[in-house]
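Subject line: Sequence and fold of a protein, written as structure tokens
Body of memo: The sequence and its backbone structure tokens, given next.
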Amino acid sequence: MADLKKAAENLKARGFSVQTFQTAEEAAAYLNGAIDGKTVGFGGSVTLRDMGLYESLSTHNSVYWHWQGTPISTGEAEKAQIYLSSVNGLDEEGDLINIDGNGNRVASMLYGHEKLYLVVGRNKLAGTYDEALWRARNIAAPKNAQRLQTKTPCAVNGDRCYDCKSPARICRGLAVLWRPMSGMETEIVLIDQDLGF
């Protein structure tokens, strides 16, 4: 079984800020206190949705998320001072793996904000890079395809990635963070609880 403590140590050694919490409630309270009076963009994330962060942060920040509130373009979230999302996979060495279809979520993890927060439940953790990538492709992607009600083989069968040629395919790009991007502070919030896909 992959070790969350080892992943936290390796992330710190790579230059990421890291906070570790036992529960999603503790992590949500921390983020709600740390982010105040800012413009905040959200990337599509079941983890963030289930933590209720949109609702709590919206009481004292301007929050933009295409999943919630008044319909907006993803461009508003991309211009925010703070950006929050999750990841599809994390290995013990500290590689943060994300697969995206439109690119808005991974683009905002790479550029354009004062600070990036990535919120990661223990179920996203794998021992090696190959295992974390496998997890992103064969666990997270099929569940997200089902959530989006696509007609891809992974959504229909719900079992694995088929590396399909479907025009509805949601796996179109891969981004891996090895270190924080230059000019953007990045904080990883690790939670010792299963969250999201």
Observations:
- The chain has a mean pLDDT of 95.
- The chain has eight helices and ten strands.
